[in-house]
Specification:
Keywords: Membrane, Transmembrane, Transmembrane helix. The protein is of the alpha+beta class. The chain is about 55% helix and about 20% strand. The chain has 2 domains: about 140 residues; about 100 residues, Immunoglobulin-like, CATH 2.60.40.
Length: about 300
Amino acid sequence: MNVKNILAGGSFFLVIACLVLTSQLDNLESREGLLISIILALGSAAFSWVISSHYSKKTLKAENTKLIDRIGEQSSEKILNQSKQLYSIEQYLDSKQEKSAMENSDSKGMIYLESTRNMIRLIRSSNNTYLSDWAGVVSDEVREKLTEQSNAQSQLFEDIDLISSASPAKREKIEEKIEANSQKLPSHLVPQSSLKRNNAELHDHLIETNDTDKKKGIIKVLLSEPSFKGHVVAKFDTNLSSPPTKNKSVLKKSPNGSQNVNVFAKTGTVYDFHIGLKSDEFNVPLQPGIYEIEYEFEVEK
């Protein structure tokens, strides 16, 4: 029990006692009446001060909560918008990396793009920490709203990355999740996919050579629908000693023996690599089916 509560209780008791005493006396001398009036006035003033202080503090707390909630919502919206913009940069770098791989560009450039994208992704992930900071000071209602929006946007980033390489069966479920989470965010905070639809799926991976300086094998890619191009990402069984400096890819088998296929195998990392298919004939799509691509990566000593 704090001092204010004690003062309020004592003042209230004193006022009641004075009123009871006054009602039981037939007459009061002027000195007694003056003393009781002073006591009543002081008790009433103390009691009123305690009550007004309590409600003013409560009102001030409510106003501060509203102010913090408003600032928290505005700041969180800016953080979510920044995450969306950073994700757009990641997608731009992804498209540049894919284009570089198709054009057989220098592996150093691909390593640079990969490193830059990873740094931007790290910055984007740190935004969740700032959102958590705001969630610790806002009201419960606003905290629930901010948490829902943050989780929805984070899930959208993951699903948009997955849908580009998902099979048709999985793509439908991912699209449903994307639609559901998009409804939890304002339209200007919903990330959009800039990647074209991909109908390729990793069907099988046969490893032939698995050294720290050399990797060789055959990738089987299932193309589920007629497409002008497709790509998959495969992982090495063990890491290379460093990013490879030499690479080679050959088409071993295609549906109906079609040869209008340009293939590539590229990587800027030591743990995974990209396999791509592209039609060589203008306006003629690749046929659905399984494509076998032989790859070979080597680190020059």
